[in-house]
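Structural biology now treats backbone shape like a language. To illustrate, our science desk offers a sequence and the tokens encoding its fold:
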Amino acid sequence: MAHPLSADALVAALDAEGVTVVEHTGWRTHNRNHKGSWGPVNGVIIHHTVSSGTTRSVEMCFHGYPALPGPLCHGVIAKDGTVHLVGNGRANHAGSGDGAVLEAVVAERATLPAPHRNDTDGNVHFYGFECVNLGDGRDPWPEVQLEAMVRAAAALCRAHGWSERSVIGHKEWTNTKVDPRGFSMANFRSRVATRLGHPVPPGSPTPAHQPFPGTDWFRGSPRSAIVTAMGRRLVAVGCSAYTHGPGPQWTEADRASYAKWQRKLGYTGSAADGWPGPASWAALEVPHV
């Protein structure tokens, strides 16, 4: 369970995972939050669009249609591997699904139950990626697209401290859907697991410092290697308020330590409240994880 990522944190997570991101005009405030809750979030759902063409698919997912207004997902993943961001917040993508599946995702169980009831609002709990494909079982999935899908899912898992078991197909959420067709979700999760275990492919340049995940990311009490790396840097610069650790789970000890760092930089009052900001984060020089 976690608070949703802010728009900045989502972009940072995708960038850090090495995907090409296009921000559709207006996506940062485009959502269905007025229709229900967004969060706590528990996982990622992979869909296919049943459409062809990037422009057409992105427009469809941004605007939706009269019976189902947009956004219809958070990101559209094109055949060329580009991730087009179209929504930030509650989106009309998951619909109703099986609460037992949600329980299995939250617990990160190795096996999902077969969905047979539709008693739980998935739009509350899941990020959604619509991936451009006709969904007929014959339309190919280019490797560059599949790799982008894996990286996008891994980016969210890494940001929230989830494993690959937090990634499911729409057909695994509800028995009323068949997407995605054309590849195995078990194999897809295996690729996500490999990606999470090997964040940077051999030969790829690694940024020296961890990009700023966003203040809202920290407010969501994340569990991540980023938190550990930050804590170690705080200890190294003499700003520790830890009695043990630091570790991957964000705690008040992390916040107190970060407040010491902010004061060391000359911040006072509410500017030294322990919640990381972009300037103080850049100054801390947290190693890339």
About this structure: The chain is about 35% helix and 10% strand.
